[in-house]
From TrEMBL:
TM helices/strands, residue ranges: none
Domain of life: Bacteria
Species whose genome carries this gene: Glutamicibacter mysorens
Name of one Pfam family that matches: Abhydrolase_1
Residue ranges of domain AB hydrolase-1 in the record: 23-139
SUPFAM superfamilies from the UniProt entry: alpha/beta-Hydrolases
Coiled coil: none
Protein name: Pimeloyl-ACP methyl ester carboxylesterase
Phylogenetic lineage: Bacteria, Bacillati, Actinomycetota, Actinomycetes, Micrococcales
InterPro entries with a match to the protein in the record: AB_hydrolase_1, AB_hydrolase_fold, AB_hydrolase_sf
Amino acid sequence: MINGMTLDLNLRVVRANAEVKSPSVLFIHGFASSGEFNWDRSRWLKYFTDAGRDVLLIDLPGHGEDPRRNDGSWAPSQIRQALAAIVMDLDEGPVDVIGYSLGSRLAWEFAAFNPDLVNHLVIGGPGAGDPLAAFELDQARAHVETGEKIHDDYTATIMQIAKAEPSNDLSALFELIEAIKSEPYDPAAKVPSVPTLLVAGDQDDLATTLPHLRRLLKNAGTRNEVLWLAGRNHANAVTSREFKEKALGFLNS
């Protein structure tokens, strides 16, 4: 379960369908999703492997087919160490990183703390705050155990998302939220130095603080670009072909 006190994240390596000329791409999915749900079903894997990219697809703790494969802390700092171990163990050299929603927070921190392991960074649906900080764990747990109504609107929305995927283990997701709350997100504490693309739907309420992230990048002297997806929200931005095309073009730049 634990290898040298590093989380053993479920990893799937998907090889390119064409000649490989560029670095592998590490995909980090969002909350209540999985590598398959976030990236395979929305055809990111096929798009990138067809373009000659090997893909590193992980499941975060509490997610995927084996949500409890990891003992120990699931805090973001431990997830970062596990991602670094994957990249180094595979001897991939620097990789390109794409994260969405919660994955964008983790990708931001991973690139900021490990600039030697990352070439380019793409983060979708990002915000300057912690998307799970306001989640009311007590209300959510009571709802699952007794059917009690959730009174916090934001928590109710996140619960709808979590319950929409039948394979999700809600108690495991709650444990991950608890671990994430133990290390509040402060994007200004360490800013990525690698070229960064910020992408969000223009109807995404969770991405209204994206401009703050861009200011942090600009102030740090980090090359950055922004793409707003017309008519897209937090739930469907990830399925956008424009997002895929812009991301691949940015990684190749």
